[in-house]
Specification:
By secondary structure, the chain is an alpha/beta fold. It has a single domain, classed as Rossmann fold. It contains ten helices and ten strands. It has an eight-stranded parallel β-sheet with strand order 7-6-5-1-4-2-3-10, with helices on both faces. A two-stranded antiparallel sheet has the order 8-9. A hairpin with a 5-residue loop joins strand 8 and strand 9. Helix 1 packs parallel to helix 4. The longest helix is centred in the first third of the chain and has 23 residues. The structure holds guanosine-5'-diphosphate and magnesium ion. The site of guanosine-5'-diphosphate has 16 residues, from helix 2.
């Protein structure tokens, strides 16, 4: 057989191209529905669930929150997020080390997003595969924890390139680890110049306001864009454009009483064990 007769297909390229199309479909659906989707990525143990719980507590009086917990197995994180007051669904990836757009679409469909304003996807814990797969989120949020070290941008560059913000968690442990924040900043800038880096502790709450401010600003900016877009201006967006964010990112209480009431409806809790198997 001559070389010219051998068909070579780049399977990975095709998978990623298919995924990108599916991700655009998710993004467009979320925009239509006025839902802000956050893809939360980090190593196992970096503090994704702990950060999520504190974030839910900080936002739940303002927004209705959904959480998709992706794990190879188990539903421990889903139970924790449900107890914090979010509508939750557990997704088992069936061994896969990341979520892709199709699994995300399935999770969204099973959970139902008509009664939520924000959905957090806690991705499978690792710094490699989740970086490759766009799930259709508005923002990709990466957590690096102090004990993991300041050299991680050198080892996992793609994750730092694709993320929109870097949260450096567990700053309360900084005295016991020789984590150099300047070295981290320099390593990050080589890959993604100017990416916001927010040091915080999901345990003590130190630095948390800066994260919540960043997030609220992004949510409100996305709502304003959707409101200005003729394709989505009429879409159902509870509270869209009704919250005004001041320069420091705090919400000004511009919501009507009816809207406030709508937002404080009891959330559906999937602690009863709602699950979807993504594969
Ligand atoms: N000291 C400290 N521990 C934390 C912090 N955030 C999370 N942890 C702990 O780190 C461990 C893993 O946290 P978890 O939220 O389950 O991480 P996940 O696997 O990324 O979801 C738990 O023992 C948490 O209590 C933090 O800011 N400081
Ligand atoms: Mg977790």
């Amino acid at each position: 057989m001559q070389d010219s007769e051998i068909r070579v297909i780049d399977v990975k390229e095709r998978i990623l191209a298919d995924n990108d199309r599916a991700a655009e479909a998710v993004r467009s659906e979320m925009k239509q529905k006025g839902v802000f989707l956050v893809n939360l990525m980090a190593s196992p143990g970096a503090g994704k669930t702990t950060l999520l719980v504190r974030t839910i507590q900080a936002l739940k009086d303002t927004y209705r929150i959904g959480v998709m917990e992706a794990d190879v197995d188990s539903d421990v994180d889903a139970r924790t997020a449900a107890e914090a007051g979010a509508k939750v669904i557990q997704i088992h990836t069936g061994g896969s080390c990341h979520m892709d757009a199709e699994m995300t679409e399935k999770g969204i469909g099973e959970m139902g997003v008509d009664d939520v304003d924000i959905v957090f996807l806690e991705n499978v814990g690792n710094l490699v595969c989740p970086a490759e797969f766009d799930v259709g989120a508005n923002k990709r949020v990466m957590i690096l924890s102090v004990p993991e070290g300041d050299d991680k941008p050198l080892k996992y560059p793609l994750m730092f390139r694709v993320s929109d913000v870097l949260l450096v968690n567990k700053v309360d442990t900084a005295p016991i680890f020789d984590f150099d924040f300047d070295r981290l900043r320099a390593n990050v800038d080589r890959l993604h110049e100017g990416m916001p880096v927010i040091p915080l502790s999901a345990k003590t709450g130190e630095g948390f306001d800066a994260w919540i401010t960043w997030l609220k600003r992004e949510i409100e900016a996305s709502r304003r864009l959707a409101a200005d877009d003729p394709a989505t201006a009429g879409a159902e967006q509870s509270g869209a454009g009704t919250h005004d964010v001041s320069a420091d990112g705090r919400l000004n209480a511009a919501a009507s009483d009816a809207e406030k009431a709508e937002k404080t409806q009891p959330v559906h809790s999937a602690a009863q064990g709602e699950k979807v198997s993504a594969r």
